[in-house]
Amino acid sequence: MLFNGSSEGIKLSSRSWLATLLACVFLVPGAYCIEVILSAEYGEDYASIESEYDVSTGVSVSEESSASFDQPAIESVRSISGTGDIDAFQSYSGSSGYLGQSALHAYGVSGTFNGAASLKPSSMRADHSGSFAGYSTDAGMSLTSQGNSVAVSSGMTSGSIVTSQNIWTGSAEGGQDTQITGADSGYIDTRGYVIGDIEWTFDRREITLGVDGKPLGDLIVYKTVSADGNVTFSIDWLPCV
Amino acid sequence: MKYFLLIIAAAIMLISLASAASWSGSVRTDSDAWSIHRESSNMSFTYEQSVLGTISAVDFRGRSLSPYHSFYEDVLVNEVGVRERTAALAGSFRSEEELKLCSSINNSVNMTLTKPAGSDLYDIEFYERWPVKLNYSKSMQYSGKGINNREIAGNNRDYAGASFLYNSELSKERSLNMSLERMNATILATDEAIELGEVQATRDTQYKLQSHSNGIAGFKWRQSGEDGSFLNAGDERFVGEFDINKNIRMKSRFDKILKEDEWLPCCSGGFADMNSLEQRTLKSAKGIFDCTCPQY
What is the pLDDT of residue B202? Predict the structure, then answer.
């Protein structure tokens, strides 16, 4: 499926390009970061949450996690706000084998970010939402469970973004609501079993793609501005086989 | 009256933690790592025993089994525990003991991470309220060819223990009361390094001992600080015939305080409101109350 949102021609993104993009979103910050892990175990069952932060001095970080043991469970909330650079990564795992991730990479921005996660050995749910304006922001979540996977991500450069993303187990499900405004470039990427609406707003031009809880396959919307100022909107839909 | 009783059974007490709950916490920076692992369960355990007899040889299918008694004991829940080993040759033996242990994991374990804007310092805290209570009294009397007995009681890095080796006469009465109320750990770290790592377990250990021995008697105890260093410790050794009474009480209490980073916190909020790193820099509350804040 292709959509031409400007006077320019249609572009179809390649899977390799998108894979690279997602890899960047979920890239774990490697240098100069702090990592905190809390895990709860009861017999063979466990749940674990791991957080990594690398933020500017002007950014505040707050996280509270609580582990209970009648059956091991972890509830966690966090918030990040301020001005500067933010690399924040969180991963979730349980004894049933699920692996979830939340990632935020924002540079030269001002804004707030909130997250919450509820983990049990065999199930989880995590939500995060953020609102940033500035140079660049990439936010994403992914989940692999019972052989299924879902990934949601969005990002922009030189603009503002408001995004709310979530993942949860059943098999592996997720969704996002994202608005990008006034950006030079951006993308909204949802792949796997997704629930929710995807919105793209730029220069009063709006594209709304509804995804009604059906496994549509990979769905990508992105906009690029070429060196000579031509604007191209591209939608890449890779249906389920 | 003469008893011909062979004590060959080893009294073994093992608290199985197969279905125990545990939690782990860790903090890692570019150059340092700090971690903690705790384990406990909802359980109670009572053990009472009374033994009176003579350790002597026994004929078994034409062979003579050597007179021997051994005792092995390990009890450990959430770093509150006691270990004891006894081995005795032929002689008269009497012991009485009563052990009561209970622990709970009903409360959740909490972790908080805070980094205020304007600072590069992360304040990470783990808070656990998994109480343990252990009461153990024991008396023992022996007279014979020889007995060795060792015991050590530990409570979250504090310990007290005694050993009696190569005694032909030994009597001891020991009472042990240990409790763990809660534990909180504080880690102050930047991206580059861990500045402070403290474990604060609110605990109480009382160890009382009366003994008579004619071999080698040794005693050790230690009370640990928040960073693992010892606050006080002792190591004693007596060779010969001695009557020794001991009463050791080690109590550590930490009241959790709210830590906040504020502009000139020593002036606006007082010493108790400062984070641990700043408290350490200022050493004590003295000099804070006049609000001169010399370090600033």
Answer: 96
